[in-house]
Design a protein that fits this description.
two-stranded antiparallel sheet; Ribonuclease iii, N-terminal Endonuclease Domain, Chain A; mainly alpha; three-stranded antiparallel beta sheet; Double Stranded RNA Binding Domain; about 270 residues; disordered C terminus; 2 domains; 5 strands
Amino acid sequence: MAGWPCYHSLMVLGRRVTTPLEKRLGHRFKKPELLELALTHRSYANERGAAVHYERLEFLGDAVLGLIASEWLYARYPDLPEGELSKLKAHLVSKSALAPYAERLELGAALRLGVGEERSGGRTKISLLADSMEALFGAVYLDGGLAGGLRAAREVVEPMLETTLASGPSARSRTFGADSKTRLQELAQARGWPLPEYRLIGESGPDHSKSFTVECWVDGAPASRGEGPSKKIAEQRAATDALARLPAASPVPLDPTLQPPTTKGK
């Protein structure tokens, strides 16, 4: 795939076509040249005598990922000491977490590699996939601009953090697990429960910085809540918290503050 097409050329009726990778990522680039740069490996640039490749974006993306992961963990675990937060962060931003997420996005197939790197199996190398994932995070951050860069990056990074954490402590020695909503749905089906339900119960903030609150109902009762800058992220957070309440073989311990209202007259 050394001849991977330029994203500027993918046009229909004068409008750039959203690529399959952007759809899987959940972010449509306003500056497609940033996406193109994030996919360009040094080997591809060297073969063409060019100096531009994704390594500078990788440097930026590493910092963006670290900041978002730290902020996310700080907010989610207010009672966890610094040492434990550091351990969790190290796991969440590790190559063993980034590479499988890149595989889920089918990032390897979109990379622009040189002939030698292509022949050596570069599209499936863990280190290369992890590095290119960081470059992609950096590109999303820059694409969002000064005001919206961090918000755009959060919407892309946090689903990865949710999924990695939801796979449990044992996942540190495994690869990647399904996202929280999928795992909760599978668990509900295995126990013969109705499918989990997600109810939007709150929305606040200005248009450029919305916050959504979603309540997750499991087996006909409220089990948890999640907040986030999008409904999708809020639902994932609610599902993650519901999973955390699930022992191996017993119902979800419901949050007493989420009990449904009693019927009047009883």
